[in-house]
Amino acid sequence: MSDTTYVQVLDLACGGLLLTSVLMLWRRELAVLIRVFVVQGLALAVVAGVGAAHTGSVELGGVAVGILALRAGVLPWVLRRAVAAVGPASRETRPLVNVATSLLVAALLTLVAYAVSRPLVALAPSAATSAIPVGVAVVLIGFFVLVTRRRAPSQLVGFLLMDNGITAVGLLTTAGVGVTVELGVSLDVLLAVLVLQILTGRMRETFGDTDVAELRELHD
Amino acid sequence: MITVLILTPVGLPVLGALTYLVVGWRPVTALIATGTAAGELAAAVGIAAVVGASGPQVALSGLVRVDALSAFMLLVIGAVGLLATATTPSHLTTEIRAGRASSRTAARHSLLAQAFLAAMTAAVLAADLGVLWIAIEATTIITAFLVGQRRTREAVEAAWKYVVICSTGIALALLGALLLNYAAQHTPTKPGLDLVGLLGAAHSLDPAVTRIAVALLVIGFGCKAGLAPLHAWLPDAHSQAPAPVSALMSGVLLAVAFYAILRVKLVSDAVLGAGFVRALLVVMALASLALAASLLIAQRDYKRMLAYSSVEHLGLIAIGAAVGSPVAMAAVLLHVLGHGLAKGVLFLGLGRLSQTAGTSRIEQIRGVAARQPVLAGCLGFGVLALIGLPPFSIFASELGIARAGFSAGLGWAIAAALLLAAIAGAALVIHMSRMLLGAPAEGPGTATAAPRLPGMTAAVLLAGLALSAALGVSAGPLTDLLHSAAAIATGTP
After folding, report:
1. Which of A199, B163, B352, B359 is the most exposed, having the fewest neighbouring CB atoms within 10 Å of its CB?
2. Whose CA is closest to B305, among B356, B333, B346, B273?
3. What span, in angstroms and rounded, lies between the C-alpha atoms of B147 and B156?
């Protein structure tokens, strides 16, 4: 792969990461959110894939396949099951912040991400590291989704968005943390999501709803 | 031979978990958990002896490493683990008899508690920050089902908050670890996340990137350690989890998360100087103490009261670590052990009380001393141990932290911390004396004879108190280990 194509594909994939994150703020239907999440998983796999093709690393190629399977396959499947358990009321009806404000906040968070990531880019300037702020922005937007959504499944989406952002930062720092840690991290995310999915089911059993605002038995 | 010894503390609980998976839970197999915890404590003593005699040991081609600091943490895990698992059989039998659990829930409880001990042990044995992260995050997943065990509205709510807040917090720590790895990659030795390697490469780590990484790591692990402002999961989880699990979470989970902060602090101090982490820790410590003190005063639920007391003690531990001198670090480590023992005794004792009384509201419990003198005695002395009265070890460690703090020029922070700790202590004593003293409440259900405290539970509570008192009088054979562990934690071995 020529250097120009590498940079173009990488930038395209990172653009895809950011665009899908913003789409998650815009749309409300959980089914749509899951489809957007699949696209983001694909973009993440492309980031790993072009990195593998560029450096000729077999290990990174394996990571790309793993990301594709986990983030565009298994996790959306788990999410779909969580939504199916919730039933027809699968719309995020009452988010704490409306769409227009959310989009403005996303723009602000992206600026913040670029500001705080300057030392990260400066350490080793390259096509990959200059995209690190995109990963940081996805983390921040994911955090924002997590704290402003009230349905349990949409909080789950926020958590996964954060995690995608962290994975993107990991891939873009072009360091890799070794197969053991990479595997452990993926397994942990998968398990955390499975646990949250089970708890969503229990929440529906005991509360008859997945509105996290119902969680107010425990307080001081 | 050394490898076998080092891997025993992880291997035993793994075997225990497998046993519960295969044969399930019966009154006979209930004792396996106690056995593995006792074995783990024995192995920890062995490891401490080996490390004391011949320095840090490495196993499994560098993946596992024990030094005096990890050996001390193994002792904490072993001691608190033994307290909790020894009372688990009677706790579970009572639950089953009351119809709140079945032998299936008991088997799952025992399996998960064993997995929890294995993960915590793996965390302190890890030579690599990445593996340490995985082990700590794994405990979130393992304990989620223990917190939500009773499947009531409150339990589901606590479990949901626990998983969401802790996973998010620990995700920040992961981002920090990735960035630290990135900085490490651009040094000549490329140590990755190996803790010793990072210290060796500290002079060539990029300070700006390390600063971001360390802040994320301290905040992330601080969330798991229950430090304010990220403590929100803790009171809910501790109040809903079964008593032995609360004891484990307070004494072991918070301590191991704080151990991770100590390891990060070492790298940060070498790259950025001591000031950076100190500032972070002082802010989080004072916030935790202020929050705990204010919420303890008006507390109405005695399990939440203990949870906020854990926030308070982690605050004291954090301020000790912020001081960071060898004396302060030795006191911090002693405080970790003393807090684990005293909090373990109180959680187990109050857990027994809530099982027999059927409520965890402070105002509904009166006159325990008149009806259950042994339990009341243990609870009374437990509170005295917890608020740091002599001869208990928390007195010695708080004194050590305070003296070290004043001589290190952090006097204002220490003074504020001690004042807040005194308020928290007074609130604890007032609430507890209301429950223990006075005439038993009149009303339906109080006419029946008080249930007897199971012999094993009584023995465990007394042993915990005795050990805490003994440690307060003299650290005895632990002295050398404490000093070498403190030397490692200050980066001056």
Report:
1. B359
2. B346
3. 8
SS3 B56: coil
* B194 DSSP β-pair partners: B128
The residue type of B351 is G
Query: Quick one: tokens of A175?
Result: 């360091």
- B48-60 pLDDT tens trace: 999 999 889 998 8
| Residue carrying the six token digits 């539970």 | B457
DSSP string, B245-290: HHHHIIIIIHHHHHHHHHHHHHHHHHHH-THHHHHHHHHHHHHHHH
Residue B447: per-residue pLDDT: 44
Query: What would the pLDDT profile of B437-471 be if each residue is shown by its tens digit?
Result: 877 766 554 545 567 888 889 999 999 999 999 99
E strands along B3-113, which residues? 57-59, 64-66
Angle between helices B233-240 and B302-323 (to 10 degrees): 130
> A54-109 pLDDT, tens per residue?
888 888 888 889 889 988 888 888 888 877 776 655 566 666 778 888 899 999 99
**C-alpha to C-alpha distance for A37 and A74, rounded to whole angstroms:** 12
Give contacts of B211 with chain A, Cβ < 8 Å. Answer: 119
Dig out the tokens for B281 from the structure: 């820790």
B288: Cα within 13 Å, side-chain hemisphere: 30
Does the beta-carbon distance from B159 to A199 stay under 8 Å? yes
CA–CA dist B457, B93 (Å, integer): 12
Q: What are phi and psi of B361, to 5 degrees?
A: -85, 130
Q: Which B-chain residues 445-484 have CB contacts (< 8 A) with chain A?
A: none
Largest CA distance in chain B: 75
Asked whether the beta carbons of B193 and A177 are under 8 A apart, the reply is: yes
Distance CA B478, CA B473 (A): 12
d(CA A175, CA B336): 36
Contact A192 B141 (CB under 8 A): yes
H/E element, A116: helix A99-116
Locate tokens 């690190």: which residue? A132
Tell me how many degrees the CA angle B461-B77-B360 measures, rounded to the nearest 5. Answer: 45
CA pair distance B308, B315, nearest whole angstrom: 11
Q: List, as one string, the DSSP characters of B92-153.
A: HHHHHHTTS--HHHHHHHHHHHHHHHHHHHHHHHBSBHHHHHHHHHHHHHHHHHHHTTT-SH
Calpha distance A53→A40 (Å, rounded): 20
User: Three-state DSSP class for A174?
Assistant: coil
CA torsion through residues B231, B235, B240, B245, sign: positive
DSSP for residue B440: P
Judged by CB atoms closer than 8 Å, whether chains meet at A123 and B206 is answered as yes
pTM score > 0.90 for this model?
yes
Q: How many CB atoms lie within 10 A of CB B53?
A: 7
- CB proximity B181 to A under 8 Å: yes
Contact at 8 Å (CB) between B220 and A161?
Answer: no
Is B157 within 8 Å of A215 when comparing Cβ atoms? yes
CA distance A108 to B19: 53
Domain locations along chain B: 1-490
